[in-house]
Amino acid sequence: MAAKQSKRKSRKIGWGVIGSTSWSEHTFSPAIEQARGAELRAVLASTRAKAADFCQRHGIDNGYSKLADFVADKSIDAVWIGGPTHMHKDHAVAALKAGKHVLCEKPMAITPAECRAMMRAAKQARRKLQIAYNTRHSPKIQQVRKEWKAGRFGKPVHGRAHFYYPYPVKLGGWHTREKQVGSWAFNDIGTHLIDQLRWFLGDAKKVMASHMSSPSWGYRTPDHAVAMISYNNGAVGTLSASTGLAPGRSRLEFYADNGYVIIDNGVLGLEGTLTTGFRNGKERTVKLPFSPTYKLQVEAFGRHITSRAPFPLAPEDGLANVKLISQARGW
Fold first, then answer.
1. How many domains does the chain have?
2. What does the pLDDT look like over 102-133, one tens digit per residue?
3. pLDDT 10s digits, 250-302
4. End of a domain among 77, 107, 132?
5. Scanning 30, 106, 150, 329, which has the fewest C-beta atoms within 10 Å of its C-beta?
6. Model's pTM, two decimal places?
7. Same structural domain for residues 27 and 173?
8. Same domain, yes or no, for 166 and 74?
């Protein structure tokens, strides 16, 4: 009996990824392969040839090009949805109905209605659904945010979030179609900033102003976005995001009535600095080493599945994020 229990405890969570190129290839799948208690077992690609190529590269056997076949795979316990945003809802609902837990890439979906459909499916299936905002898994940012929420810096007043992530090549495809990408700069980069602002400042009231333009790629979908958001506690947040402008760095600034937190280039687990300061003039800056936030996210989701350990956000956070993006883009 003891041997059986030990074997059960050591069983790895079988993962399937949706998407065989781009981030699913160079980031999501390696994160699963490196994470404790996780094993990559299957992929859903757009074609059989792409699925076969992915399987060969990653040393797995189960490659699919049809969603129904993928979700029917009994070796899969959890699915990481990394496909185009406009397909998130259909992929998530199918996986949940098939009894899989779902980690869905940001943003959760295109519209709030799609988010709610995903949440209903998770509740009906009694399976876990979470959203992949990996910056929430940075240990040092988690610690300073804990101090912020405990009131060490005082009452929140202003948050400022900035991230310019210039894509090196013209992507084309679904990124050029507004109903599929959901306003490119907001849904690709701005969604991370909205999440961090909400994480530190709390629930948002509304988007007070926004601006969108396409200076870098010339698509009808904006590659540069700016927004101002009001929060229920009286704070205000401002953000600027781009998928084309240099230099490819991020900066988060949070100001309260007794101090401040500045995170320079720490989004997504990237190397940077963390500065904390107070009204008395005391300031401290420490290095932020690279943090494998994608791997840590996989491990946290695994604990969330197996032992109901807390996850640092909920599906409601994904819904709230999409609501704000919807307000900012005007549809």
1. 2
2. 999 999 999 999 999 999 999 999 999 999 99
3. 999 999 999 999 999 999 999 999 999 999 888 999 999 999 999 999 999 99
4. 132
5. 150
6. 0.95
7. no
8. no
